[in-house]
Structure formats: structure tokens, C-alpha cells
Design goal:
Keywords: GTP-binding, Nucleotide-binding. It comes from Oppiella nova. With 204 residues, the chain is mainly beta. The protein folds into 2 domains: 3-108, Elongation Factor Tu (Ef-tu), domain 3; 115-203, Translation factors (Elongation Factor Tu (Ef-tu), domain 3, Beta Barrel), CATH 2.40.30. Helices cover 8% and strands 55% of the residues. It contains 3 helices and 16 strands. The protein has helices at residues 3-11, 93-96, 111-114; strands spanning 15-24, 28-37, 39-41, 45-49, 57-66, 69-71, 73-75, 79-86, 102-105, 115-127, 137-142, 145-154, 165-172, 177-178, 184-189, 192-203. Strands 1-2-8-5-4-9 form a 6-stranded antiparallel barrel. Strands 10-13-12-11-15-16 form a 6-stranded antiparallel barrel. It is elongated, with a radius of gyration of 18 Å. It starts with a helix and ends with a strand.
Length: 204
């Protein structure tokens, strides 16, 4: 990545991907992950989600750490740990924070287009003992998201097998997720595995 590319990312809206969560006594919820874009400073008011209903809750960054050392700000491309407080007495964070969430700008409206239960992806099957057909359940990995999804439909085909590719419609089994179009994905279930990328998300 060039210096110019990184500066462009820093000037973009905040998107922090939550990879790990902790509950620290007398501190509260703490999340660690990678800042994909933007700049986060101590005291910033942001929002985190999606919750089970697809909504986001307000949070305030009470402190920041990089490599276990306190810092005042984090820039795009850096890994960090954020201690969070509720903002304006919104949803109880302790019971709702989970891996796979994102922290974004308070006024960011992209969430309405990127939070989805259904998404379409172009996949390539690396191996499957028989065939993948509608109804097949698999664990899908997209960025920091890891969740079981079910194949709803395979475009133009009834089933696909090893070394075949197709456009496939997936549905997350549990809660909706925040997904960016174009992201690479990996799926696997037992010995079955494949790769691909997200073509389209269908807003929740």
C-alpha cells in the first residue's frame, strides 16, 4: 500500500472490525481488531453492531491500546484494542458485544445497505465428496465474520461439485452481519471447502 493510498483510507469513514471481545472488571467491554479505514481517537462517539435486530448501538471510546501500550489515536491499517462505554444509556453492551461486529461513524448511513441476512457470492468448490445443493449448510468466513450459512439457491445449476464455480445465494442462520461487497470469502464444512467473493448483499 502506498502512502497516498493509506492517507486516503485515513480520510475515509471509520470501520473497525471486531475480532475479539473481553469483559474487564471496572472497565467494561473491550474489543480488539483491525481498523480498516478512518481514524479513531480517545473519547470518540461511534456506533457498534449489528445487533440481533440489525440495529447499531452508540458507544464511546474510553481508551485505546496498540501492542498493549496506551495511545491517543489509531489510524487505518493498524490493529488496536478499544475500551468502550455506552453512549446516551443505549443498549447494554456487556450482553450484546460479539466477534464479527463493526464499529463505525455515528452518522454513517452505509449500515442500512451493508447489514444483511442474505447475500450472493461467486464461489469455487475446492473439494466436496459429493455435490453442494440448496440446503447445504457451511461455516462462512468473510473478514472478521464467522457464521453458519445455508445455500438457498445456485444460479443456473441444480448442484455443484469439486472444481466447479457458480453464483450462490446464502442466508446466515443466526443474526444479520455487516458485509462489504467484493470481500473474499472462505467456506468449509468437514472436508468440504471452497473460496469466493461477495457479489451482492440484500439489506436486512
Amino acid at each position: 500500500m502506498t502512502v497516498k493510498d493509506r492517507e486516503r483510507l485515513i480520510q475515509s469513514d471509520v470501520e473497525f472490525q471486531v475480532d475479539e471481545t473481553f469483559q474487564v472488571p471496572e472497565v467494561g467491554p473491550v474489543v480488539s481488531g483491525l481498523l480498516m479505514s478512518g481514524l479513531i481517537k480517545e473519547g470518540d462517539c461511534l456506533k457498534m453492531g449489528p445487533l440481533d435486530d440489525g440495529s447499531f448501538t452508540g458507544v464511546q471510546v474510553s481508551s485505546l491500546q496498540r501492542h498493549k501500550v496506551a495511545c491517543r489515536s489509531v489510524r487505518a491499517g493498524e490493529s488496536a484494542t478499544l475500551a468502550l462505554n455506552r453512549y446516551n444509556n443505549q443498549t447494554d453492551l456487556e450482553r450484546n458485544v460479539r466477534k464479527g461486529m463493526v464499529v463505525i461513524e455515528m452518522n454513517d448511513q452505509k449500515q442500512s445497505h451493508q447489514v444483511c441476512q442474505y447475500f450472493q457470492a461467486r464461489i469455487h468448490v475446492l473439494f466436496h465428496a459429493t455435490m453442494i445443493c440448496p440446503g447445504f449448510q457451511t461455516t462462512v468466513y468473510i473478514g472478521n465474520v464467522r457464521q453458519t450459512a445455508i445455500v438457498i439457491a445456485i444460479m443456473g445449476k441444480k448442484c455443484i461439485s469439486t472444481n466447479e464455480s457458480a453464483s450462490v445465494m446464502f442466508r446466515f442462520i443466526k443474526q444479520p452481519e455487516y458485509i462489504n461487497t467484493g470481500c473474499r470469502l472462505l467456506f468449509r464444512e468437514g472436508s468440504a471447502k471452497g473460496i469466493g467473493h461477495v457479489l451482492q448483499v440484500f439489506p436486512f
